[in-house]
């Protein structure tokens, strides 16, 4: 019997939450696909088949289970650490790349042929790019039906459907029922904000990521307290606010979103997922890192370690440049000064200034040495002129090269920006003085060259190894 089948079957039998979202179970006798944690009566092994993604199950003709709600599972991680092209394609799809254009335009942006892109998707996800996009759209619409009081029209357009008719037709085809009939079975909490539940795979060190974000929280823009992360956001030309807390009993974080226009909800949710690294697979990361016996001791101390992302790539780039050669606390203070002096005051808090504001400043106005201030201005100008893309869909190697080419930005800064802005799990800051100090004490490593060589065995999760080392500073 295939070893992967055995692992999946064992996880299904145990209803193991660590495998939630890693695969889906199609039940031949009912035509329904479920999460491995589905609480319904366990189907017999001969009546099930496994799929790499929800989209693959739908492409095979199965419809989603209304009991376990596949749309509520953690993100599918099949692409992580495997194909850079698939990773970037999924991020572009998440940003709506296939809402108005076809696979041809998507593949052109990635520099590959449509045929090659389709082959990669079949290999890693078991479904075509179009099916992936349609499934994500449907799943988010179902989530909004279950967890918000939005109207059907708002749900349709918020989820990326071109019309309400297309939205209704997709639901009828998939669920054999209308969206309205599905909502009648739900109890909606009536309030002015949207509270969306976002699943993750345990273990999840939420307090650890809160501590990391709290040390770097920009005064007036971000804050951490009472087990909650809060920040002002700016999206589609309008301000808003998010508040994120943890419900460990359900393996979900609760994301309270306050915005005037619901159309931005999908992108807000995607940003929050990346900020808190919710799609990570802890057991895969631990398995690889624990092959290094000395590093394994550190990994076991924090089995739910996450890789903090960011809300905005430009903001984190400014932060990284500000933080060159000063303490974390000092950089946080400077960021607060920049936000208060040049940001926009809103009812939700301060919105950190964007590239247009920073590019228009005299470097001498920024509270830092001239080289760093000049680098921030040059970086902002490059973003405005579309010479630098700090979005999640950027390529890591290209981004690092572009950043280092800017006067005043060194390799450490560029790599840190890539790690936070792109959520790249394999970026490694081998030149970081703190990492070197801990590696010398814990791993017996003497210099940067030895550390980089040792880190080869940690691939493709070197960024997580770096986080474990940092925590032992």
Features:
473 residues, alpha+beta, DNA Methylphosphotriester Repair Domain, Arc Repressor Mutant, subunit A, 5 domains, five-stranded antiparallel β-sheet, four-stranded mixed β-sheet, 23 helices
Order of the strands making up the biggest sheet = 5-9-8-7-6
Largest sheet: 5 strands, antiparallel
Give the domain tally.
Answer: 5
Q: How many DSSP E strands? A: 11
Mean pLDDT equals 92
How large a portion of the residues is in β-strands, by DSSP E? 5-15%
Low-confidence stretches: none
The CATH class of the largest domain is identified as Mainly Alpha
Relative helix content:
40-55%
CATH topology of the largest domain: Endonuclease III, domain 1
Terminus-to-terminus distance: 46 Å
Instruction: Return the structural class.
Output: alpha+beta
The general outline is globular
Radius of gyration: 23 Å
Fourth-level CATH superfamily of the largest domain = Hypothetical protein, domain 2
Q: Tell me the CATH architecture of the largest domain.
A: Orthogonal Bundle
């Amino acid at each position: 019997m295939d070893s992967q089948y055995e692992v999946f079957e064992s996880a299904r039998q145990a209803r193991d939450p660590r495998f939630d979202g890693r695969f889906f179970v199609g039940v031949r006798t009912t035509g329904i696909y479920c999460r491995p944690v589905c609480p319904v009566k366990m189907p017999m092994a001969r009546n099930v088949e496994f799929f790499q993604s929800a989209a693959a199950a739908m492409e095979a003709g199965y419809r989603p289970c209304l009991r376990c709600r596949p749309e509520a599972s953690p993100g599918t991680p099949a692409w992580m650490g495997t194909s850079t092209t698939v990773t970037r394609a999924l991020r572009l799809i998440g940003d709506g790349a296939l809402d108005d254009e076809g696979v041809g335009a998507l593949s052109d942006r990635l520099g590959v042929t449509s045929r090659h892109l389709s082959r990669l998707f079949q290999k890693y996800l078991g479904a075509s790019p179009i099916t992936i996009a349609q499934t994500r759209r449907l799943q988010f619409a179902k989530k909004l039906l279950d967890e918000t009081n939005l109207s059907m029209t708002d749900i349709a357009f918020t989820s990326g459907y071109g019309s309400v008719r297309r939205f209704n037709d997709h639901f009828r085809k998939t669920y054999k029922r209308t969206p309205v009939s599905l909502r009648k079975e739900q109890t909606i909490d009536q309030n002015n904000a949207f509270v969306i539940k976002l699943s993750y795979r345990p273990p999840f060190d939420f307090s650890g990521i809160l501590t990391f974000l709290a040390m770097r929280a920009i005064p007036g823009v971000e804050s951490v307290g009472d087990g909650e992360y809060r920040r002002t956001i700016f999206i589609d030309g309008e301000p808003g606010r998010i508040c994120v807390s943890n419900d460990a009993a359900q393996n979900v974080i609760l994301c309270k979103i306050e915005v005037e226009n619901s159309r931005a909800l999908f992108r807000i949710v995607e940003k929050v997922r990346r900020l808190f690294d919710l799609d990570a697979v802890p057991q895969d990361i631990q398995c690889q890192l624990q092959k290094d016996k000395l590093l394994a001791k550190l990994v076991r101390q924090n089995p739910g370690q996450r890789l903090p992302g960011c809300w905005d790539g430009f903001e984190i780039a400014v932060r990284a440049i500000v933080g060159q050669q000063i303490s974390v606390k000092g950089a946080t203070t400077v960021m607060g000064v920049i936000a208060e002096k040049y940001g926009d005051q809103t009812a939700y808090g301060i919105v950190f200034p964007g590239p247009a504001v920073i590019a228009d400043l005299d470097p001498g106005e920024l509270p830092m040495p001239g080289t760093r201030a000049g680098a921030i201005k040059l970086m902002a100008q490059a973003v405005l002129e579309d010479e630098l893309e700090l979005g999640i869909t950027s390529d890591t190697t290209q981004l690092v090269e572009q950043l280092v080419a800017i006067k005043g930005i060194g390799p450490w800064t560029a790599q840190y920006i890539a790690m936070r802005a792109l959520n790249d799990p394999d970026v490694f800051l081998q030149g970081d003085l703190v990492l070197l100090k801990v590696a010398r004490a814990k791993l017996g490593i003497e210099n940067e060259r030895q550390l980089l060589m040792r880190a080869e065995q940690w691939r493709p999760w070197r960024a997580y190894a770096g986080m474990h080392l940092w925590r032992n500073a």
